[in-house]
Amino acid sequence: MSGTNRSLAASQPSACGARPGTSRTVPELRLHPRLLGPLRPLLATCVVAAFAVMIAAYGCGGRPVAPTSTPAAPSITADEVVRRSAESMRQLQTFRFRLSHPSGSTLLPGGISLDDAEGAVVAPDRLQVFADASSGRSFVKLSVVAIGDDAWVTNPLTGSWVKAPPGGSPFSTFDPAGLVGGILAGVTEARFSQGASPSGGAFRILGRAGASILEPLVGEVDRGRTVEFELLIDAVSFRLSRAEIRGAVSTGEDPATVRVVDLSDFDAGIEIQPPI
User: Fold this and answer.
1) Where are the domains of the chain?
2) Residues 258 and 101: beta-carbon distance below 8 Å
3) What topology does CATH give the domain 78-264?
4) What is the pLDDT of residues 120-139, one digit of tens each?
5) What is the pTM (predicted TM-score) of this model?
6) Which terminal residue of the chain, N or C, has fewer Cβ atoms less than 10 Å from its own Cβ?
7) How does DSSP assign 8-41, residue by residue?
8) What is the helix, strand, coil percentage profile of the chain, to 5?
């Protein structure tokens, strides 16, 4: 065979609205004639596919469109998360709480050591608490209902309810709502523990605060002390669901004390009534 070249061209309607009957000439592809025989079917398929891509990209004289980047998520600081959480929690009318101690315990007025407690809060001044505590070597279960200035407690021996004299309840200073407000208002050095992006739908905030934030829980504290904490704040509602507080707030507490406050059932229609 001669050394002449064959010209392979494609003519098809333009994807951009060219008039029927017109064609576009594509770059010439030169192959040795001896190779065309067995490779003809494969080459035809590859060439058609390549031309289709070329026509789509350049048929109208345009350029490939650069991929658009995904807009970055709005940034938020740890201080802003805490501030918005404080606003969200102030609007609540009711919630449930649970206080636990992975290490140590909380000392209440009267020498009672609080191990675990759970209950409910109804704004503005209703509180219900069920607690496991100890006094000396005795372990007791206590229940308390406080409404305004009135409080009722259970007798540790009989379990019956009695009305406590003014200030006579071991939970007279116990105020979970005040504790939550104090934590969110007193936080300093707030920072994200795992980056600004919420993990599992919640922000994790690390920080520290003066021991006074625990006054609504324990009463008197050594104000020269500080505690460290980690807050778990919902990324949508900005409600505080957990606060882990590490450190003692008085000389009588174990320096390794860890308190965990879990909050739930926000505005769940909770009612607290006098027990007797």
Assistant:
1) 1-68, 78-264
2) yes
3) outer membrane lipoprotein receptor (LolB), chain A (2.50.20)
4) 999 999 999 999 999 888 89
5) 0.72
6) N
7) -------TT-PPTT---PPPP----HHHHHHHHH
8) 20, 35, 45
